[in-house]
Amino acid sequence: ACLLDNVKYFFVVEEDNTPLAVTVTPCDAPLEWKLSVQELPEEASGEGSGEPEPLEQQKQQITNEEGTELFSYKGNDVEYFVSSSSPSGLYQLDLLSTEKDTHFKVYATTTPESDQPYPELPYDPRIDVTSLGRTTVTLAWKPSPTASLLKQPIQYCIVINKEHNFKSLCAVEAKLSSDDAFMMAPKPGLDFSPFDFAHFGFPTDNNAGKERGFLKSSSKFGRQTSSKPRVDLHKVCIGNKNIFTVSDLKPDTQYYFDMFAVNTNTNMSTAYVGTFARTKEEAKQKTVELKDGKVTDVFIKRKGAKFLRFAPVSSHQKVTFSVHSCLDAVQIQVRRDGKLLLSQNVEGVRQFQLRGKAKAKYLIRLKGSKKGASVLKVLATTRPNKQSFPSLPEDTRIKAFDKLRTCSSVTVAWLGTQERNKFCIYKKEVDDNYNEEQKKREQNQCLGPDTRKKSEKVLCKYFHSQNIQKAVTTETIRGLQPGKSYLLDVYVIGHGGHSVKYQSKLVKTRKFC
């Protein structure tokens, strides 16, 4: 209902020793309210028919009298008046909002034991924070006895915000809804349904509701979907689960969490004791220091990032960064004293030469692949002639000649460069069902010949060509078994001893010759 200034409600309790329960729920502003009772007038009927006078006539006769105050409250908590034995009489509920136009909910009944419209809270109504991360918080709570014992349909609604805890779901709905949405055509209230009016002898037509000033709030309970969030406030109903992980939160931020048990039969809700928690800080990136001319191994988690720092001790004209991405492509960014100098994707071995600057400091950011973890080798140096990584051709595939296959040998070829390098070729017998997925697992280009068995080594040789078009070599691998599959690997080894593996090649000897 909507309270524009003050509102009075009247209801009749016809018999003494009647149970009575009244619940008032303020939605978006504190309320002052009191409940009082006046004796019913003696029957004034001359015929002595025994029929009571209509409620309106009774009200007119005694509303000017001062009733006996039973209960009063001022604040924004959900408050109750409960009596197991109330006297007969005309009851008056006065509500006043001193701050602003506001909304509230009222529920009154003379059969509280059988109605039980509000879900019960467990003996421990607190929300526990069971897990805390940088962007996630896991909450757990004990089930409502209304669900676990009485087997009534209960769903739980979680409210997340950055400002404060809420005392009722009604207050949440008021915050989520726009001001205009609240003011709707007068209709019987959500809480005083025609069934409720019948308990107290009120007529059930719409006009009776209008006379008493009941306005239907736009907020509704028991939705299965999330409400449309307003500023930093989100509500989601999750069914009858007792544990839930809130995700997509901001690191190092305090959030308030409220839990409401909603009886989907009655659309009434009860608030658990709210809690709050601060998400963990963003993990501070540890910066790896690069030493001039020394190769550094770097591991990056999937979609992760690593920061490297290079601070040359001597003055320098140029800086060379060599990056060997062992698996998938990675992104590299280089900043000098905060200024972005380079941003590129790197696959295989790449070398970047940048102009130097006295006392400059370089920050290198490496961002990993979306496909999986990344392994890299990084070298930074101010001495251009000191290259640890071997040069590679653009095409690092191994070509197999099908027509030269025999039952005991295969012939392959690969490209070289203009630099004289050492090449070693290795073979490994594999099953016939060896597939591309298994092959992909062995594509780490940074694993050198030292990780291979001696029995797998075929040969090593040096070669290069000043004419890049002729920098190609062939090799026949003999001593193989008929009809068998083999995985071939070629390693190129640089002057500093670091190796780079070409793309593996799967070959198969002929079964019949």
In short:
The protein is mainly beta and 513 residues long. It has 8 helices and 31 strands. 9% of the residues lie in helices and 42% in strands.
How would you describe what is shown here?
With 513 residues, the protein is mostly beta strands. The protein has 8 helices and 31 strands. Strands 17, 18, 19, 20, 21, 22 and 23 form a 7-stranded mixed beta sheet that branches. Strands 11, 12, 14, 15 and 16 form a 5-stranded antiparallel beta sheet that branches. A hairpin with a 5-residue loop joins strand 29 (485-493) and strand 30 (499-501). 28% of the residues are buried. This is Protein NDNF. Residues 39-58 are annotated as: Disordered. It is found in: Secreted.
Name the features:
single chain, seven-stranded mixed sheet, five-stranded antiparallel sheet, 8 helices
What is the topology?
Elements: E1 2-3, E2 6-13, E3 18-26, E4 31-38, H1 55-62, E5 68-75, E6 79-86, E7 89-96, E8 102-109, H2 112-115, E9 128-132, E10 137-140, H3 145-148, E11 154-161, H4 169-176, H5 179-182, H6 194-199, H7 206-211, E12 233-237, E13 243-246, E14 254-263, E15 268-271, E16 275-278, E17 287-289, E18 296-300, E19 305-310, E20 318-336, E21 339-355, E22 362-367, E23 374-381, E24 399-400, E25 410-415, E26 421-430, H8 436-441, E27 457-463, E28 472-477, E29 485-493, E30 499-501, E31 505-508
Parallel strand pairs: 17-19
Antiparallel strand pairs: 1-8, 2-7, 3-6, 3-8, 4-5, 4-7, 9-10, 10-13, 11-12, 11-14, 14-15, 14-16, 18-23, 19-22, 20-21, 20-22, 20-23, 24-25, 25-28, 26-27, 26-29, 29-30, 29-31
